[in-house]
């Protein structure tokens, strides 16, 4: 079952920390966002394999937007 | 002839002979302020001119704060008239987006709770034997709001201005150190981990954004007329921003006006830091009480957050109460960082921003309310 990693707030993608295919644990940082001039680490809601990364560095995202999928 | 040259040369050394130990100490303190501003990034926009002004005023025989002196001119023109802090507020209003307030109006209440520390500190300062007006100026440091503190102290306790502004601005930068221990101590492990629902950026209509500064000004000023210059200018700046038809005035307010006034304000505050006025036990007590005031604000904010948590059956994380002070957006960032420390999936930033925006307005209103109450009691 795929789990999505979603943006917790409006902001910009600063760094992508996990590659597609990488194995991640719950609470591992997948993506670092920037909001209100602050770095916000977005973590994996559950452990698994990163299936897809749906955003690019520099992209603006809305709250709730899907950033990546974990399987 | 030789003797004339000799006494002329001695004239150059004259300053050296008049350098009092206190002035040397003050120059060292000014050096620390410059260091904090330049190397540590603590409110450099204020601390650099304050520190430099403090060096200038402690140069023997230069008499920059004497009648007709350069710093004295800035002081008389901008601080004695209270015009500098008031002008700064136009700039702050033009820079601030009060949008986060509308997305969760309940949270504004935290911006009010975060101000109770001011009143507790007022009582404490009175109990310690400070003069009533001095106690008022000290308590306002707890608003964690530089211009408000400067406004109140220039009006009611000008001899404390240097100490009060140094306390207000340096503690504002120290919020990330002062708040977390208090937040940790007051919340349970379970409360710290409460995940709050994501803030959906509700589109706020332009009419609401335009009416907001006007309505707040009228309502707040009628309740607390003594705060009208502050809240009025803050909201004027915000109206310039939100109405969308005076982009030039908005840009000038947030750039040129804010920058010029900040520079002159900083210099004039530095000018109040002459050795004989600043090197007193009183100054240390002001610094200590200011720290207590900010701590008490945080305590009250978090406690009120716990109360809201109780009433909403655990939907509000009490940590966001710490953002109910005016230090914007530092306090909100502290909350985000602390929240994520206990639950990596928890993002409190946007909720904390709402409380923080509330705190910005709250601090001005709290100062105004305090002044109006004291006026009612016949104290001022």
Essential attributes:
heterodimer, A: about 70 residues, mainly beta, OB fold (Dihydrolipoamide Acetyltransferase, E2P), 4-stranded antiparallel sheet, 8 strands, about 55% strand, B: about 375 residues, mainly alpha, about 0% strand, globular
Query: What shape does the CA trace of chain B take?
Result: globular
Fraction in beta strands of chain A? over 45%
Instruction: Output the strand order for the largest sheet of chain A.
Output: 1-8-6-3
Please give the largest β-sheet of chain B.
none
Q: What is the ordering of alpha helices and beta strands of chain B?
A: HHHHHHHHHHHHHHHHHHH
- The CATH class of chain A turns out to be Mainly Beta
Radius of gyration of chain A: 11 Å
Structural class of chain A: mainly beta
Low-confidence blocks of residues of chain A: none
How many alpha or pi helices of chain B?
Answer: 19
> What's the CATH architecture name of chain A?
Beta Barrel
Distance between the termini of chain A: 6 Å
Low-confidence stretches of chain B are none
Structure write-up:
The complex is a heterodimer of chains A (71) and B (380). Chain A is mainly β. Chain A has a single domain (3-70), classed as OB fold (Dihydrolipoamide Acetyltransferase, E2P). Chain A has strands at 3-6, 11-16, 23-24, 29-35, 38-43, 48-53, 60-61, 66-70. In chain A, the strands form two sheets. Chain A has a four-stranded antiparallel β-sheet, with no helix packed on it. Chain A has a four-stranded antiparallel β-sheet with strand order 5-4-2-7, with no helix packed on it. Chain A is globular, with a radius of gyration of 11 Å. The termini of chain A are close together. The model of chain A has no long low-confidence stretch (mean pLDDT 92). Chain B has helices at 2-18, 21-38, 44-57, 70-79, 83-95, 99-103, 108-113, 116-127, 132-139, 146-156, 161-186, 189-192, 206-223, 228-243, 247-271, 275-278, 281-311, 330-342, 349-376. Chain B has one domain (15-376). In chain B, 52% of the residues are buried. In chain B, 73% of the residues lie in helices and 0% in strands. The mean pLDDT of chain B is 92. The interface between A and B is medium-sized, with 15 and 15 residues.
């Amino acid at each position: 079952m795929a789990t999505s990693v979603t943006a917790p707030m409006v902001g910009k993608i600063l760094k992508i920390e996990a590659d597609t295919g990488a194995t991640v644990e719950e609470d591992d940082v997948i993506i670092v966002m920037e909001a209100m001039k602050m770095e916000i680490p977005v973590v994996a809601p559950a452990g698994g394999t990163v299936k897809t990364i749906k955003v690019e560095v520099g992209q603006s995202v809305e709250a709730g937007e899907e950033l990546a999928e974990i399987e | 002839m030789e003797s004339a040259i000799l006494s002329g040369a001695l004239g150059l050394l004259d300053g050296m002979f008049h350098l009092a130990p206190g002035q040397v100490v003050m120059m060292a303190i000014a050096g620390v302020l410059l260091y904090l501003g330049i190397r540590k990034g603590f409110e450099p926009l204020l601390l650099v001119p304050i520190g430099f002004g403090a060096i200038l005023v402690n140069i023997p025989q230069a008499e920059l704060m004497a009648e007709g002196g350069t710093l004295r001119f800035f002081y008389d023109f901008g601080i004695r008239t209270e015009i500098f802090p008031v002008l700064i507020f136009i700039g702050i209003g033009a820079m601030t987006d009060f949008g986060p307030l509308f997305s969760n109006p309940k949270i504004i209440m935290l911006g009010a709770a975060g101000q109770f520390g001011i009143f507790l500190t007022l009582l404490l300062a009175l109990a310690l034997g400070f003069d009533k007006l001095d106690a008022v100026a000290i308590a306002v440091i707890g608003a964690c709001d530089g211009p408000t503190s400067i406004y109140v102290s220039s009006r009611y306790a000008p001899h404390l201005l240097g100490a009060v502004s140094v306390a207000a601005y340096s503690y504002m930068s120290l919020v990330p150190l002062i708040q977390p221990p208090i937040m940790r101590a007051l919340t349970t492990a379970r409360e710290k981990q409460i995940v709050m629902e994501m803030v959906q950026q509700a589109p706020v209509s332009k009419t609401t954004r335009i009416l907001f500064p006007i309505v707040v000004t009228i309502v707040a000023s009628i309740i607390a007329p003594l705060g009208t210059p502050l809240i009025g200018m803050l909201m004027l700046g915000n109206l310039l921003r939100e109405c969308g038809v005076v982009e030039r005035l908005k840009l000038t307010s947030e750039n040129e006006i804010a920058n010029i006034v900040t520079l002159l304000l900083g210099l004039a505050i530095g000018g109040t830091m002459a050795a004989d006025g600043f090197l007193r036990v009183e100054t240390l007590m002001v610094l200590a009480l200011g720290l207590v005031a900010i701590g008490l604000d945080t305590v009250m904010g978090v406690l009120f957050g716990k109360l809201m948590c109780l009433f909403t059956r655990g939907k509000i994380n009490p940590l966001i109460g710490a953002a109910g002070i005016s230090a914007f957006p530092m306090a909100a960032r502290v909350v985000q960082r602390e929240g994520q420390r206990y639950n990596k999936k928890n993002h409190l930033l946007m909720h904390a921003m709402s409380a923080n925006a509330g705190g910005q307005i709250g601090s001005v209103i709290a100062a105004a309310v305090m002044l109006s109450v004291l006026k009612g009691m016949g104290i001022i």
